[in-house]
């Protein structure tokens, strides 16, 4: 069994973002947990939807767990792209779960463990292999026990590994110098950047960390297109 699991880790799960798979050996390692982080408007949610769209094209059921925005708003925003998102929603190859309503509308605070256990129950009930959790940062100031995050998150990631779920955790970039537990405990970290240069917005993607995969950590040009995000092999400047 151990050898079989090692061989399985050689497989790849496409990110759904054109140009990115080439930077990380063909895609994500299945059954791992990755952090997608960036400032406002950098494309984090779009990245997550593209990941689920790619799975839906290959008959893989995906789940988007929203912790902040209403799924209706996210769906409306994504209609600007040629994703065919509505088709995948109607076929139930992509599911939305509004967890924010149950957390912030409960009238009480939850512990990190309670939140993660609830997420695992949702994942198991839906029987999905691709999951996006957006936005993780919204929980930071609403939990009952912020000091227990590292231990609870570590257990959560281990359980996702055991279930073979490939998960993207979306988070806001709080600081370029102070890293949260997410950076250390996840299997990979992809940072979306945007800069002002000569009065124009320049976008970039950086593979900051990727366990088990040779990767280029230099900034790569990133653009929004009608098909969503696209990564280019050259530097953004």
TrEMBL record:
Residue ranges of domain RecA family profile in the record: 9-173
GO molecular function: ATP binding; ATP-dependent DNA damage sensor activity; DNA binding
InterPro entries registered for this protein in UniProt: KaiC-like_dom, KaiC_dom, P-loop_NTPase, RecA_ATP-bd
Domain KaiC: 11-237
GO biological process: DNA repair
Pfam hit, one: ATPase
Keywords of the record: ATP-binding, Nucleotide-binding
Protein name as catalogued: Recombinase
Organism expressing this protein natively: Thermococcus barossii
């Amino acid at each position: 069994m151990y050898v079989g699991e090692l061989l399985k880790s050689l497989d790849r799960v496409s990110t759904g973002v054109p140009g990115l798979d080439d930077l990380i050996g063909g895609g994500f390692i299945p059954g791992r947990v990755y952090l997608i982080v960036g400032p406002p408007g950098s494309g984090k949610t779009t990245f997550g939807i593209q990941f689920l769209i790619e799975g839906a094209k290959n008959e893989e059921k995906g789940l988007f767990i929203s912790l902040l925005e209403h799924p209706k708003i996210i769906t409306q925003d994504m209609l600007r792209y040629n994703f065919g998102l509505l088709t995948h929603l109607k076929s139930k190859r992509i599911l939305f779960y509004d967890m924010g309503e149950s957390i912030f509308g409960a009238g009480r605070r939850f512990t990190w463990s309670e939140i993660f256990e609830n997420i695992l129950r949702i994942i198991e009930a839906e029987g999905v292999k691709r999951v996006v959790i957006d936005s993780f940062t919204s929980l930071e100031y609403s939990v009952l026990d912020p000091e227990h995050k590292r231990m609870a998150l570590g257990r959560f990631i281990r359980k996702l590994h055991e279930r073979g779920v490939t998960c993207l955790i979306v988070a806001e970039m709080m600081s370029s110098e102070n890293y949260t537990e997410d950076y250390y405990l996840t299997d990979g970290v992809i940072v979306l950047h945007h800069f002002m240069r000569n009065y124009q917005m320049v976008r970039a993607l950086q593979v900051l960390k990727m366990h088990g995969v040779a990767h280029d950590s230099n900034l790569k040009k990133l653009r929004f297109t009608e098909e969503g995000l696209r990564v280019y092999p050259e530097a953004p400047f």
